[in-house]
Amino acid sequence: MTNDQIEALHGYYLEDLEPGMQACYAKTVTEADVILFAGVTGDDNPVHINAEYAETTMFEQRIVHGMFSAGLISAVLGTRMPGPGAIYIDQQLSFKAPVHIGDTVVATATVLEVDEKRRRVKLETVCRVKDKVVAEGVATNMVDRRPVAK
């Protein structure tokens, strides 16, 4: 790849980011998503894949893996903001409510602070289904500085 092609793929640079900036990624969860996620991760907990079992739980129906929502946060950070070139290095996350097949999860990342010296960006991360928060936390990304022109 040429430098111009690489530059075209790169997301935000550290100098481009400031508190308050926000990006989102939305996904409607399908049956296939849940089955594929279980297969890829090995998490075949019956609350996710067995309707009869799930009916006996407090949720009374199958629920989507919590880490599926975390994966949508990764999608925001890796593809939207900071985007390609950033490295996801930390995540604190609390799950607040279940997600069900057919729900549309909107993952949002909002820049909280930029540490120029350490090349770190702290972001608030929130996943919602409609107006309900299903997961929330704080992520840290390591972000490239803009290359110096030669």
Describe the structure.
The chain has 150 residues and is of the alpha+beta class. It is built from 5 helices and 5 strands, in the order αβααααββββ. It has helices spanning 3-9, 31-41, 46-49, 51-55, 66-79, and strands at residues 22-28, 87-95, 104-115, 120-129, 132-142. The chain has a 5-stranded antiparallel beta sheet with strand order 1-3-4-5-2, covered by helices on one side. The mean pLDDT is 95.
Can you give keywords for this protein?
150 residues; five-stranded antiparallel beta sheet; elongated
Radius of gyration: 18 Å
Question: Main beta sheet, described?
Answer: 5 strands, antiparallel
Principal-axis shape equals elongated
Main sheet: which strands, in order across? 1-3-4-5-2
SSE string, helix = H, strand = E? HEHHHHEEEE
Round the mean pLDDT to the nearest integer and report it. 95
How many beta-strand elements?
Answer: 5
Q: Summarize the amount of helix as a percent range.
A: 25-40%
Poorly predicted tracts of residues: none
Specify the structural class.
alpha+beta
Number of helices: 5
Briefly say what this structure is.
With 150 residues, this protein is of the alpha+beta class. The protein is built from five helices and five strands.
